[in-house]
Amino acid sequence: MSKRLKSCKLLLSSIDVSRTKSSACPVNSYGVQKDCEEDMQKYRKAAEQGDADAQNSMGDLYYWGRGVLRDYKEAMKWYRKAAEQGNTDAQYKIGNLYCFGQGVMTDYQEAMKWYRKAADQDSADAQNIIGYLYECGNGVEQDYQEALKWYRKASEHGNDSAKRKLVWLQKNLSNLNASPKKSSRSFINEQQFTAFERWIYNLSATAPRQPN
Length: 212
Description:
Layout: H1 3-13, H2 37-48, H3 52-64, H4 72-83, H5 88-100, H6 108-120, H7 124-136, H8 144-156, H9 160-178, H10 190-202
Helix pairs in contact: 2-3, 3-4, 4-5, 5-6, 6-7, 7-8, 8-9
């Protein structure tokens, strides 16, 4: 195993992935959360009237299976509606869906496009994951200087994860530069998928907002 791969795995192992996004709604035997139907109707009404926050929340409900069966394609549909209105959170989540191939084919270039849209609106979470992609060469050419740049941006916007990774990367930069760099590779291996998925969504996980 290369020193670089070991370093990336150490980053993952240092992440607290126990903080899963919980639901206030109990789940029935079909995996559908009971007592959420009324909220779903409120969100849907506001979303269909063009409310970007409600559209983003609809995406959350379908992604997590709250009041409905989990449906990544439907989540993508609502996230896209919100993102096209400039909703930063939805733009970031679309990037995640493309990274993980949930509801769509895995497409790292498309993921980066949406992450950058969110990052350009000062999304610290998007800036942080862009830094990670550059640091580990996931979907892009490995570039430590680009990684540092994006970690700094995220840190300046208060992202604690980026602050930790910025310190770690600066401390280990000399050793990393001495190791062979790699070109773009698959985003993540199967063993790391669940932990990384949970971490990514924990970065911006909030309960869907109640529509006005």
